[in-house]
Specification:
The protein is mainly beta and 455 residues long. It is built from 2 helices and 28 strands. The longest helix has 11 residues. InterPro entries: PhoX, TAT_signal.
Amino acid sequence: MSATRRQVLATASALGAGIAFTGALSELFAGTAAAQNLGHTGYGPLVPDPDGLIDLPKGFRYTVLSREGDQLRSGEGPVPSHHDGMAAFGGRGGRTHLVRNHENRATAQIPVPTVDGLTYDPAGKGGCTALTLDAHHRVLSERVAVAGTAVNCAGGHTPWGTWLTCEETEDRAGTNGYVKDHGFVFEVHPTDPHRTGAVPLTALGRFQHEAIAIDPRNGTVYETEDAFLEPFGLFYRFLPAKPLGGVGSLRAGGRLQAMRVPGVPDLSTVQETGTRFDGIEWVDVPDPLAAATPTRLQDYGPGGITHAQKLEGCYWGGSCVYFVSSFARSAEGSAADHYGQIWRYDPGHRRLTLVVVFGPDTDVQLPGESPDNICLAPGGGLMVCEDGNGAQHVFGVTRKGEVYAVARGRQNIGTPERPEWGEFAGVTFSPDGGTMFVNCYTPGTTFAVTGPWRG
């Protein structure tokens, strides 16, 4: 597909779902099983939920797996708040293991309970919890997987079956009551958290981490940085000293580098899909621990470094890594405005390409931060969690660029019994592809959605 920027903006309302896309959507599914089955145009209109939680298409149903404030089945304390990034792992006997982030700041009212051997900083209120589900997705166990961290936003799974949870902060010890420095990545084992413990992977850098994707061929780790202040975040790669070494191997250290696109200091200035940059450079980060200066502000020598606002989702597909810039606003310091981009980096050719551009979200009064968490659906398609004002959705996108709503959160506001429903986050699928798991950020809730996903 190709279209002018004006055409992209004009088609937003016509699509009905509220988001417009342009670009070579087939790029997103290259080399994946999903590429064989794309083409459907959605599952039909959303049916209002009589219970006021999630509106889904006909033939789909949801189950609430976990709510903040309820008691963890382990007895360690209440289910923490602010459910965010999540991954699903297969287990024996049809079991599914979920690892779920809790983006708790120092002010969080329901922290992740501290547990001996799993707590990094006793003053940190973030972390992860792990759920084990049976073959029918009934909860068998729910427990703390790592605690004492801060602002655990997104992350990524590893080829050896663990979750890398990312701290979206760079607060130092002594800030907000913290005892230790924050801004790290932690490895979490889905079934045996004590095997990974609460050890920061310091060589992966100390910055406002968002998401991670790993090249399964050589173990290179790609990282996004969602920095809140201009100059904005960088796109990093980590070359591990012990690539693909299994659980705990990233503790062996390695080399952290930042991406430089020659002549492009800010990715927001690129507006046309298909724009390609060859000869991408990778520059060593002078001080990955940011002892004196944040990594994005360090001296990268002649040519500087390339920044981008709101770098969020990151995933591996085929032979390339894809990463998301949710939006850019010149009023906040970006060089240009956009409503969302998806970039593809091809390491084999050192080539960066803008493959998808998001149009404005017509469901809100102000331009919405459209793409956030993102994943490939096993039955075909791309699933995108919307992050903005107004109604909250999970959208699907076909290879032809057709957009459809998969789920919509409740919109009632203002009563204790039915509080405002926050954004969706952490969308992921069961190993058999039959169930979509997704979180509501606030009030923190984890759902299992079943239905004719391959229909």
